[in-house]
Amino acid sequence: MKKKLVIFGSDDMGELAHFYFSNDSAYEVVAFTLDADFIKEPTFCGLPVIPFAQIVEKFPPESHDMFVALGYSKVNAVRKEKYLAAKAYGYQLASYVSPKATVYAGTAIGDNCFIFEDNTVQPFVNIGSNVTLWSGNHIGHHSTIKDHTFIASHVVVSGRVTVGEQCFIGVNATLRDHITVGERCVIGAGVLLLGDAEADGLYIGQASARSAVPSSRLKKI
């Protein structure tokens, strides 16, 4: 018999969590939950949406686990807040690790992690709790990703890197080896980080400028 799971969140992240847990895990998703002020419809994905203040009564933690399916709003602070609130209610927080990800046996992974397909997590990596690794990342050997961090797609984290709590790392960013990223740093899309980053740092990549030549003048495309 599958374990029962309640998902906190009913937007795109909640729908993705429902899809992945329903298709590739030992869980049966039975309900969604949100703070009452954010509930727009009584059902989502064909399941009831219960106010968070009532969730313990209707889907008690003795018989249900929970997954907090939220993004990186306010540098992950919202997801952290709801993660801690779910734990305070007594819930075990489920993690999802795609069977299509390469994660070696014995890798330390905390609770409420969301690890998508095509991630490569090398040996001796330590992944904290409430961490999201979107698809296609490389997490190098002996690296540590601390709690409440969100890593977008196709990021390269080289060997022996430490990423602090509540960081956001954007698409196609590259972190060289043996560096430390302080907590609550935002590393934007396409950034190349070659040294340590102090806490609360903001690193923004350079966007490509539009050429003065219009596409209609290209002859070989």
How does this structure look, described?
This protein has two domains: 3-88, Rossmann fold, CATH 3.40.50.20; 95-201, Hexapeptide repeat proteins (UDP N-Acetylglucosamine Acyltransferase, domain 1), CATH 2.160.10.10. The model has no long low-confidence stretch (mean pLDDT 97). It contains three helices and 23 strands. The chain has helices at 12-24, 55-58, 77-88; strands at residues 3-8, 27-34, 43-44, 47-51, 64-68, 96-97, 102-103, 108-109, 114-115, 120-121, 126-127, 132-133, 138-139, 144-145, 150-151, 156-157, 162-163, 168-169, 174-175, 180-181, 186-187, 192-193, 202-203. The protein has 221 residues and is of the alpha/beta class.
Sum up the structure in keywords.
Rossmann fold, globular, 2 domains, UDP N-Acetylglucosamine Acyltransferase, domain 1, single chain, 221 residues, 7-stranded parallel beta sheet, alpha/beta
CATH domain class name of the largest domain: Mainly Beta
Contiguous low-pLDDT stretches (5 residues minimum) are: none
The CATH fourth-level homologous superfamily of the largest domain: Hexapeptide repeat proteins
Strand content: 25-35%
Rg to the nearest angstrom? 19 Å
Looking at the structure, the CATH topology of the largest domain is UDP N-Acetylglucosamine Acyltransferase, domain 1
Determine the N-to-C terminus distance: 55 Å
**What's the domain count?**
2
Please state the average pLDDT score: 97
